[in-house]
Amino acid sequence: MSAVPSNPARPPLPPTRDSGPAPTPAPLAVTILRNLPAANSPIGLIAGGGGLPMLIAKNLRSAGHPVHGLGLAGQFDNDLPNLCSTFREIGVLRLGSWGKTLSRMGVHHAIMVGKVDKAKLMYDPLRILKHPPDIATLKAWYSTLRKDRRSHALLRVVADELDRWGVQLLDSTAPIPDEMSTLGVMTQTQPSPEQRGDIDFAWPTMSHLLRLDIGQSIAVRDRDIIAVEAIEGTDRMIERAGRLCRLKGWTLCKAARLGHDKRSDVPTVGVNTIRTLHAAGAGCLALAAGEVIMLEKDEMIRLADKFGIAIVGVEPPHDGQHELALAADTIAELKLPTAMRGLSS
What we know:
The chain has 345 residues and is α/β, with parallel strands linked by helices. The chain has two domains: 43-169, Rossmann fold (3-Layer(aba) Sandwich), CATH 3.40.50; 177-323, 3-Layer(aba) Sandwich (Cytidine Deaminase, domain 2). It contains eleven helices and 13 strands. The chain has a six-stranded mixed β-sheet, with helices on both faces. Strands 3-2-1-4-5 form a five-stranded parallel β-sheet, sandwiched between helices. Strands 10-12 form a two-stranded parallel sheet. Helix 5 (135-145) crosses helix 6 (151-164), helix 8 packs parallel to helix 9 and helix 9 runs parallel beside helix 10 (297-307). The radius of gyration is 21 Å and the shape is globular. The model is unreliable at 6-31, 321-334 and 338-345 (pLDDT under 50).
């Protein structure tokens, strides 16, 4: 069946056969505390940049939770401290202080959200001088992060260090269920047949991209991949796609990594995403249903309709057995001598 939920009046699109690259094993899933603790229980908020930490803080307060904020130095919004019961600035590379600080305040649960410019943090030649690490961070570097610095590896290191102090990370989407993407067309603006076809073309490719943990987004136009998100982040990738594709109406597809841990780095879009898409000439935004946070969702949808951009919630691109079988066939074919390829069938 089609990846895009069909209008009742239109027949479903035919399935797209995917013969992409062979799969890389996904990281093992980790335990996620999906529900918030009892009301009045204090919750720590480890905050990066952007509007998401503030939205989380507001919702936690509305639910009766005291919020103890830890703002990552140079990252958090200046208005965030006003939304927290207590607030402290912490070093980005001083992991040992995060759990220690929360534990001393009697906090046993925390949520970690917000933007961190990974490129500047990890690949600045002066990063050690700007962000001096503590012993816990150095140990994590030599044991894990010097070999793998992808998001899931970073999260595991943070979760393990917090757990050492008796602090457990919560599902970061738990306080904001109404801000998540939903299945179907969310805007009055409908995707064109060409955009529906582009989603069906790109969606299986998303499975491979997400499994490899390269990025969370793909730009597509006329059944061709324009750009793939990497470390630069979604907004810069959208701008790059707009420079590469001068034709209006291309589609951005966005989803979460296979087996994604919702304790951190949940794919997020918002009003600024819509503005950036409009400036870059995009005409459609396809989101994995239930996996992408839509900041200021109502305003985001209103602005998308104003700009003529369709927002579509699509079934998450989780792999099935048929895709694994196709990948196995691809591996087997690649192992054959060139002259024998195609003869095995």
